[in-house]
Automatic annotation (TrEMBL):
Protein name: Iron(III) transport system permease protein
Coiled-coil regions listed in the entry: none
UniProt subcellular location: Cell inner membrane; Cell membrane
Segments traversing the membrane: 12-34, 54-75, 87-105, 140-161, 182-204, 238-259, 280-304, 324-350, 362-387, 399-419, 513-531
Amino acid sequence: MKGAFSRLSFVQLVIIFLMALPVLALAFLALGRFSLEGGLFSRMLPVALTETGLLLLFVGVFTAIVGLLSAWLVSSFEFPGRKFFQWAFILPLAVPTYISAYAWVEVMEFTGPIQTAIRAATGAKTIREYWFPDIRSLEGAAIVMSLVLYPYVYLSCRAFFLMQSGALVAASRALGANAWRTFFSIILPLSRPALIVGVTLALMEVLNDVGAVEFFGVNSITKIVYTTWLNRSNLPGAAQLALTAILLIGTLIWLEQYARRRRDYLTRRDSRVPPSLIKLSLPVGLLVTAFCAGIVFLGFGVPVLELLSTSINRVMRGALRPAIWPAFINTIMLAAGGALLCVSIGYFTARKMINRDGRGGWSFLATFGYAVPGTILAIGILVPLGFMDGLINDGTRAIWGVTVGLILSGSPIAILYAYTVRFLTVSHNNIEAAMKKRGLNLLDASHILGASKWRTLIEIDLPTLRPALVAAMTLVFVECIKELPATLLLRPIGLETLSTFVYAEASLENFEAAAVPALLIVAIALVPAILGGRLQGNHS
């Protein structure tokens, strides 16, 4: 290990240190004042772990079933609307979990359209006269979050099915197995790695969420960290809970890797036997179409229609708040800055931290931040930045007799730092995959012909990586716009973004004022969702 670190340059070591610094600071803060006394661990932690575990279990099972079944249907059968649904299944990814939660509560509450229709049909006047499920519950949170997170499983399994040979399925059919027996005997065992990867990504998003769980009244560990820090002013206690969450996340990652150890489920696709589609009869095909339409409608249609109707009503009444537009500008600028930083550093980590044989070096240390929820990351960032601000103010006081205030922790720098740590892996992975696919032959040829490093970079390296660079910047840009916890906790006083604007209004039960900025977030996030879905669909 010592020899491996000695081969890293100073810049590489600085990047690794800066990306790992929040977790290191978190550990220092938590272990520095470690205590198991009081109600923090005896009462709050057991409740948080129990509700978080149940939420993860429900979301994991629901997303696995819906995502795998959706991918199997569009990959194996021909039915009305299949080409539309193979990319439409991705649309719910454009709806952040907290926005979907706010929209669904508006739809399901007493004054919402469903209960209003029930009262109109039955003549009931109060909720006591009929039964209706309470969506503000752990079960309601699991269902609503699963409806927007299942595309992670769908994308992973769909890509897996497209890479598989049709020979195994054809052999199963020839031996007389029907579609369901083929699914349970062949498709399900083979798709286990893709299923685990997709479910793991969905569960990471559940752990990162703070807006939806608070709105549904679920005491998740991320919410407990948030309330312990801000409401109880107990930063060390919040850090200790945050370390517990990181251990939980590390366990999920380890289980995902352990489940795939020494196993090769991937059969190479035989170009002579492409995956074939089974043409369903019209009645069965219409049932499948109805199922697919229902999933897309519940995950994407319901939240968007609710936002759209509320936004139109508010605009028609001239009640649009002017504060939305400064928040929109702040969002675009912060997201653009975060995307530029992530892509620039991601290019460097992919270029410098990948060995010539294609194996990763120490780059995983620089890209671990994606697994750390934004709330926890914010604590880890404020500690070192606050320490640096203290040093800066001590210096200016000693030299000029004045203090300059919170330059780092009280400015957009903290938010950009959080975006970079959290989303660096998104840009790194996209650029790294493109570099491995391109290879080094073009760069070697450029050097042999006498081109300088800068000329090779500008004329060969960057142009050949342009699609990956654009894709990485787009993905990070959208992730920054949707990100709520870190932005909410690290923003300077008076700075609003679309996500914090939505959170503030929805927390006050003023969903109508939050509809327009929420719709803007969804509209921006739709671009990569639609493009990604169509690109994947073109390979079917």
